[in-house]
Design a protein that fits this description.
The protein is α/β, with parallel strands linked by helices. The chain has one domain (about 1-90). It contains three helices and five strands; from the N terminus they run ββαβααββ. It has helices spanning about 20-30, 40-45, 45-60, and strands at about 1-10, 15-20, 35, 60, 70-75. Strands 3-5-1-2-4 form a five-stranded mixed sheet. A hairpin with an 8-residue loop joins β1 and β2 (about 15-20). The two termini are about 25 Å apart.
Length: about 100
């Protein structure tokens, strides 16, 4: 199982973590990506399949104290953050000036 942190734009967001199967994870995060924006996923994939996968994932919350790594992050309603993740890979996040956010 892979762990996905969900971050939304609600003032009371608690950054919950959910478990996904390998197949579900690869559907949401193709091509080695580990960052996703829900609106983009919604536009690019079959909505019935996405709804099915998300229902499964919502039924697998995991307490942060039990998490052994976060494998992906889904942003809801935070499109302004896209510019910091041009490759949709967390390790390649950039600053506003285009420099790498993290040292490799």
């Amino acid at each position: 199982m892979k762990n996905i942190q969900v971050i939304d734009d609600a003032e009371n967001c608690v950054y919950d973590i959910f478990q996904a199967s390998e197949q579900e994870f690869n559907f949401l995060f193709p091509n080695g990506q580990d960052i996703a924006f829900f609106d983009d996923i919604w536009e690019e994939v079959d909505q019935d399949k996405l709804n099915y996968i998300m229902e499964n994932i919502w039924n697998r919350p995991i307490k942060k104290s039990a998490v052994n790594g976060i494998h992906g992050t889904i942003f809801y309603g935070m499109d302004y953050k896209k510019k910091y993740y041009p490759t949709l890979k967390d390790e390649e996040a950039i600053n506003p000036d285009g420099t790498h956010l993290r040292r490799n």
